[in-house]
Amino acid sequence: MSSIHKRLFYAQKEEFFLLAGVFGQYLPPEYPYNVVGGERTVKAQDFDDRVDVLPVADPNIFSMAQRVTLAQTELELAKSAPDLHNLYEAYRRMYRALGIKDVDAILKPQKEEESEPKDPAIENSESLESLPLVVFQGQNHDAHIMAHLIFGSSGLVLQMPQIAMSLQKHVMEHVSVKAKEQVAAQMMQQLQGQPPNEQQAMEIEGMVAGLIAQGMQEVKTLSSQIAGENQPDPLIALKEQDLQIRAQRDAAENQMDKARLNLDTQKASQTVQLGENRIQSAEDIAAARIDAAREREVMKQQHKSQQQQG
Q1: Domain for residue 299, yes or no?
Q2: Which helix (H) or strand (E) holds 84?
Q3: Coil, helix or strand at residue 267
Q4: Cβ neighbours of residue 96 under 8 Å, at least 6 residues apart?
Q5: What is the pLDDT of residue 230?
Q6: Is the domain of 136 the same as that of 213?
Q7: What's the total number of domains in the chain?
Q8: Are 180 and 208 in contact (CB under 8 A)?
Q9: Fewest CB within a 10 Å sphere: which of 66, 149, 216, 217?
Q10: Are residues 124 and 197 in the same domain?
Q11: Of 71, 70, 115, whose CA–CA distance to 90 is shortest?
């Protein structure tokens, strides 16, 4: 079916190419045609050698089932990493592949990106919906970091690794922006509105890196205090939980493989046993027939001998 579909695609491409050549050669300079809402014209030069007329299709997709499978795969990948994908577009393509009409009536309209800062509580709420979190200059970065760390250590978020990773990434962005703001405030008087030279730029980069390292240490300390002295870091706990889930999944898959292997072995053993039983049954039947024939022959000889004696 794939080869047939590709040949049809190629044939339609050639047919369109021939039609475009005919139109470009025999159409008048302007050809009027009517459409809903007005009149339009097409020119012969619209079909000259500068324009390629091609079928709007993908020759590698030849069935609705294949189109749905591809859309479903895209949706699953988007769900696995919502921070890297546009879930709205993935769902939209899935509905289109299914042939659903009025998709806009099913999907909620996308929220326009807001350029205003949000408080940490709203950001925590939006993180549960896998919405992107944005850091703005001038925010109270320490308060945001504290709020996100407390929320990230809750039992709800610990069961959702993707949300926890998103919050961790957002906290790192706060640390970076805070360090850059502090360095900018320190260097403002020294630069006096002038762009930094190469040496000053290297100095600024070093100061930012030092403040980021200090901020990372502070975040680690806060995480330990929030989680408790005798409890592991939330990020480490997430990693351990992920490893445990993978180990359980691997163990379950190994168990299933062993069960399948045992079942195949049992089936093979049963097949061999059935074959042996059939052979033994055939041999028994053959032996019985031979014995019966031998007995008939003996009885026939005895009967014949009695007739001769009589």
Answers
A1: yes
A2: none
A3: helix
A4: 71, 103
A5: 46
A6: yes
A7: 3
A8: yes
A9: 217
A10: yes
A11: 71
The first and second tokens of residue 146, run together, are 């504290």
Q: Which residues pair with 39 in a beta bridge?
A: 34
Our CA dihedral for 81, 86, 91, 97, rounded to 10 degrees, sits at: -100
Asked if residues 238 and 158 have their Cβ atoms less than 8 Å apart, the reply is yes
Instruction: Of 165, 178, 143, 188, give the one whose Cα is nearest residue 234.
Output: 165
What residues are paired with 33 via a beta bridge? 40
pLDDT tens-digit readout, 251-302? 888 888 888 888 888 888 888 888 888 888 888 888 888 888 888 888 888 8
Helices (H) and strands (E) in the chain, counts: 10, 2
Q: Which domain holds residue 260?
A: 233-310
Question: Do the Cβ atoms of 126 and 203 come closer than 8 Å?
Answer: no
Q: How far apart are CA 103 and CA 96, in angstroms?
A: 8
Residue 16 identity: F
Q: What confidence score (pLDDT) does residue 234 get?
A: 59
Note whether 222 and 246 are same-domain residues.
no
Q: What is the mean pLDDT of the chain?
A: 81
State pLDDT tens for residues 85-101.
Answer: 888 888 888 888 887 87
pLDDT of residue 193: 67
State yes or no: pLDDT of 149 exceeds 80: yes
Residues 214 and 272 in one domain: no
- CB-neighbour burial class of residue 189 (10 A; exposed 0-12, middle 13-18, buried 19+): exposed
The two tokens of residue 194 are 């002038």
| pLDDT(207) > 80 | yes
For residue 97, give the amino acid letter: A
pTM: 0.42
DSSP string, 138-168: TS-HHHHHHHHHHHHTSHHHHT-HHHHHHHH
Distances (CA, A) of 47 to 17, 32, 151: 9, 15, 63
